[in-house]
TrEMBL record, chain B:
Belongs to the ABC transporter superfamily. Pfam families: ABC_tran (PF00005). Transmembrane segments: none annotated. The keyword Iron does not apply. Residues 248-274 are annotated as: Disordered. It comes from Xanthobacter flavus. PANTHER family: SPERMIDINE/PUTRESCINE IMPORT ATP-BINDING PROTEIN POTA (PTHR42781), SPERMIDINE_PUTRESCINE IMPORT ATP-BINDING PROTEIN POTA (PTHR42781:SF4). The keyword Cell membrane does not apply. GO terms for molecular function: acyltransferase activity; ATP binding; ATP hydrolysis activity. Keywords: Acyltransferase, ATP-binding, Nucleotide-binding, Transferase, Transport. InterPro entries: AAA+_ATPase, ABC_SmlMolc_Importer, ABC_transporter-like_ATP-bd, ABC_transporter-like_CS, P-loop_NTPase. This is Lauroyl acyltransferase.
C-alpha cells in the first residue's frame, strides 16, 4: 500500500496528534530534571512543581503590593487592547475592502495606496505612535490596528472581487442598485470570509500586542513577561506563554465555530 | 412593434472581429434560440443584449428604445452557473427581486408586504416544482433544481425579456427534458420574449419558435481575425408555437413516443426530502 493511501483511524489519529505535545513535555521534564540535578538553583528549566507554584502565585494569590490577581488583571488589560484593535480593524477593513472590491473607481483610488501602506513595517511606526499618541492605551491599540488592517483590507477586497461576476449581473437584472447589492449580495457573502481573515490575523495581532506591551506599559501579558525576565523567572514566563497561546487558540476555535453556526450555507457554497 | 431589433451590429475586441454586421428583428413573445459552434459569438451577442458588453458599431433597440447602458430589471437572465445566490435560501432567492424593487434602502421587506411577497414567491416556487425546498440553500439542491430556482428568481421580477445563457447545458438528459417542459410552460404563461443561447440543436427545436444559427464563414487562419460571425441560418420552427396558446404535452406518451415513466421526475424535490 502506498503511503498516500494510508489513513489513520480515530484512535491512531488522536494518538498521533497528542504525540508531539507529549514529546515536548517529556523532553522538558527530562532536561529540567537533569539541570536541577547538577544545580538545584537552576532557573532556566524549573521543575513542574515550581511551575505549579508560580501559577498559583500569579493566578490565585492576591499580589502583596496591589491586592490584584496578576494573571487576570494582565489578561484583562491585554484583551481590552487586542479586542478594541480587532474591532476597529474589522470595521475599517469591511468598509474599505468592500468598496475597493466592488467599485472600480474606489479601487483605482485606494488599491495602490493600501498596497503601499501594507508594506510599512508597523513596528517601525511604534516610536512615532508613542511620540504622537503618548504611552497610553491609544498607541498600543493603534499599533495592532495598523499592523493587521492593511492585510484585512486587501484580503476582503480580493474576496469581493472573487465573487462570480454572474452574481452582480444577476442582481442588476433583479433591479438592484449598487447600495442594495452591497447590503444584500456582497456583505452577507463576505462576512464568513472576514471571519477567516480575522482568524489568520490573530497571530500578527498578538505579536504587535506583546511588542507594544514589552516596550512601554504598566500592565498586560507582554508587560509581565518582559518584567520578570529581569529575574530570570522562567517559572512565570513559561506559564504566561502557554496562557497566551491558549487564548489565541480559543479565539481561533471560537471564530471557526461561530462562522459555521452563523453561516450554514458557506461550507457548501465555497 | 418588435421586442428586440438589432441593426448592423458589429463587435470587435481590438483587431479581432467577433460579430459582423448582424441585423435581426425579434417579435414580441417569440422564443429565440441562438445556436452555433463554440467561439462563434453567440454568447457575446447575448451579453450585448444584457448590456454586459456594448456593441462596437450598430444599435440595439428594446421595444423601439435604445438599449440601456447597464443591466436592468427589464431583462432577466439565467446563466449556466452562479445564477442563484448561495447565501440565500430558495425562498430568499425568489423573494430578493421583490425586495430590491420595493426597499431601496434596506433591501428587505417587513410585515404585511413581506408576507404578501412571500406568498407570491411560494406560488412561483411551487410552479417551478420546488415546493418543499423553500428553506434549503442552493448548495443542497441538485443542478436541475438550482436552474429551476434561477428561473423562478428571474421571473419573479416579470422581465419583458428573458435571456438564457446555456441554462440547461450542464444537466443530464432526463432532468433536461423535465426542465424543458417547465421552460415551455413559463414562456407560455409569462408575458416575455425569450432569447436562449444553446449548443444543443435538439433543445433549440424543442423550445424555440425561431432558431438563429451563427457561423464564421471564413475560418482560415489568416482570415480568422478579420471576419466575424454572421447569421448562417434563420429558421422559423414549424409547426408554429404561439405563446399563450401552447398545449403542453400531457404526461401520456403519444403514439409515436417512447414510453415515459410516470411518477415523480428524477429532479423532483420530493425525492430529496424522502
Amino acid at each position: 500500500m502506498r503511503l498516500i493511501n494510508v489513513r489513520p483511524d480515530r484512535g491512531t489519529a488522536l494518538f498521533l496528534a497528542v504525540l508531539p505535545f507529549a514529546l515536548v513535555v517529556l523532553a522538558y521534564i527530562l532536561g529540567s530534571a537533569q539541570r536541577l540535578a547538577e544545580n538545584p538553583d537552576d532557573k532556566l528549566l524549573p521543575s513542574l512543581p515550581s511551575l505549579g507554584n508560580a501559577i498559583v502565585k500569579m493566578a490565585f494569590t492576591a499580589d502583596a503590593r496591589t491586592g490584584d490577581y496578576l494573571l487576570w488583571t494582565d489578561t484583562l488589560a491585554s484583551m481590552e487592547r487586542l479586542l478594541s484593535a480587532l474591532a476597529i480593524a474589522t470595521i475599517i477593513a469591511l468598509v474599505i475592502g468592500v468598496l475597493v472590491g466592488m467599485l472600480p473607481l474606489v479601487r483605482a483610488l485606494l488599491a495602490p495606496f493600501v498596497a503601499m501602506v501594507s508594506m510599512v513595517p508597523p513596528l517601525a511606526l511604534l516610536p512615532i505612535l508613542f511620540i504622537v499618541m503618548g504611552l497610553g492605551e491609544e498607541s498600543k491599540i493603534a499599533l495592532i490596528t495598523i499592523g493587521i488592517t492593511p492585510y484585512l483590507v486587501r484580503d476582503l477586497a480580493m474576496r469581493v472581487e472573487e465573487l462570480p461576476r454572474e452574481q452582480m449581473i444577476k442582481a442588476q437584472t433583479l433591479g438592484a442598485s449598487t447600495w442594495q447589492m452591497m447590503v444584500r449580495v456582497v456583505l452577507p457573502q463576505i462576512l464568513p470570509r472576514l471571519m477567516d481573515g480575522l482568524r489568520l490575523s490573530l497571530g500578527p495581532a498578538f505579536l504587535f500586542l506583546i511588542a507594544a506591551e514589552a516596550i512601554a506599559s504598566d500592565s498586560g501579558l507582554g508587560y509581565r513577561i518582559f518584567l520578570v525576565r529581569r529575574y530570570l523567572a522562567m517559572d512565570v514566563i513559561l506559564p504566561y506563554v502557554a496562557w497566551i497561546t491558549l487564548i489565541a487558540v480559543a479565539m481561533d476555535f471560537g471564530l471557526a465555530r461561530a462562522r459555521r453556526a452563523l453561516f450554514p450555507w458557506f461550507g457548501g457554497a465555497k | 412593434m418588435t421586442a428586440i431589433s438589432v441593426r448592423h451590429l458589429w463587435k470587435e475586441y481590438g483587431e479581432q472581429i467577433v460579430l459582423e454586421d448582424i441585423s435581426l428583428e425579434f417579435a414580441p413573445r417569440s422564443f429565440i434560440a441562438l445556436v452555433g459552434p463554440s467561439g462563434c459569438g453567440k454568447t457575446t451577442f447575448l451579453r450585448i443584449l444584457l448590456s454586459e458588453e456594448t456593441a462596437t458599431r450598430g444599435e440595439v433597440l428594446i421595444e423601439g428604445q435604445p438599449i440601456a447602458r447597464e443591466p436592468g430589471a427589464d431583462r432577466g437572465v439565467v446563466f449556466q452557473r452562479y445564477s442563484v445566490f448561495p447565501h440565500l435560501t430558495v425562498l430568499g432567492n425568489v423573494l430578493l427581486s421583490a425586495e430590491m424593487a420595493e426597499a431601496p434602502l434596506t433591501g428587505r421587506l417587513f410585515g404585511a408586504r413581506r408576507r404578501q411577497a412571500q406568498d407570491e414567491a411560494r406560488a412561483l416556487i411551487e410552479e417551478v416544482g420546488l415546493k418543499g425546498a423553500e428553506d434549503k440553500y442552493p448548495a443542497a439542491l441538485s443542478g436541475g433544481m438550482q436552474q429551476r430556482l434561477a428561473l423562478a428568481q428571474a421571473i419573479m421580477r416579470k422581465p419583458k425579456i428573458l435571456l438564457l445563457d446555456e441554462p440547461f447545458g450542464a444537466l443530464d438528459p432526463g432532468i433536461r427534458a423535465d426542465i424543458h417542459q417547465l421552460m415551455l410552460k413559463l414562456w407560455n404563461t409569462c408575458e416575455m420574449t425569450v432569447v436562449m443561447v444553446t449548443h444543443d440543436l435538439k433543445e433549440a427545436f424543442t423550445l424555440a419558435t425561431r432558431i438563429i444559427a451563427f457561423e464564421r464563414r471564413r475560418n482560415r487562419p489568416e482570415e480568422k481575425a478579420r471576419y466575424g460571425a454572421t447569421i448562417a441560418k434563420d429558421i422559423e420552427v414549424w409547426p408554429k408555437r404561439i405563446a399563450g396558446q401552447l398545449k403542453l404535452k400531457s404526461t401520456a406518451p403519444g403514439r409515436d413516443d417512447p414510453a415515459i415513466p410516470s411518477g415523480t421526475g428524477r429532479d423532483d424535490p420530493a425525492l430529496k426530502t424522502a
